[in-house]
Amino acid sequence: MQAIQATGLRLAIHAENATLTDRMAAEQIAQGHTDIQAYIDSRPPLVEVEAVRRALYLGRQTGCKLHFVHLSTGEAVHEVQLARQQGQDVTCETCVHYLALDTEQFKQIGPLAKCSPVLRTPQVQSELWQQVQAGYVDAVTSDHSPAPADMKANPDDNIFEVWGGISGAQNNVELMYDVAVRTKRLSLQQFVQLIAAGPADLFGFNQRAD
Fold first, then answer.
1. What mean pLDDT comes out for the span 124-131?
2. CA gyration radius for the chain?
3. The whole model's pTM is what?
4. Rounded to an integer, what distance in angstroms lies between the CA atom of residue 193 and that of residue 44?
5. Which of 20, 163, 175, 198 could bridge to 147 as Cys pair (CB 3.0-4.6 Å)?
6. What pLDDT digit, counting tens, does each position of 28-49 carry?
């Protein structure tokens, strides 16, 4: 962060406490729990929220501008918003799959829906939607992570060995329109801000060429 601060650039952060997730995953596997619920239990919301709080603290100490990628919980977004209100230069995004899919659908879909952070419960998803609707999320983007079919297969019924990532860039725009505008959760203007104008603002693509 000290080195990045000197450049004036923004640090993009995947916010999960790897020490906690690795430990909890090892405990689940040691107990013979290798199904989807075990994976969900190994990556609870607290691992994201703790990582966000820690990064925000370090960002304040160094003056480094921060951007949190693919946040999956409303509580984490709330921490970002509190920091902004206190004058910290920090932004955040979420992904369409965190707004469209939850843990029950993860169990129905199977390994194709494995990602990290993990898909959340309907309650946590609802809290994330509240933050999106309040305007506290800067962009809805893609954490596009395609993989060959064999990397998503789960012949040994061990979800921990399956590639973690969702292929989404090819249909994120229309999916976000369906779950946000068609359901009247967001206005068309809010949708455009999140899916296009927001990302352009964040990464400097909003300048017209002469």
1. 98
2. 18
3. 0.95
4. 30
5. 163
6. 999 999 999 999 999 999 999 9
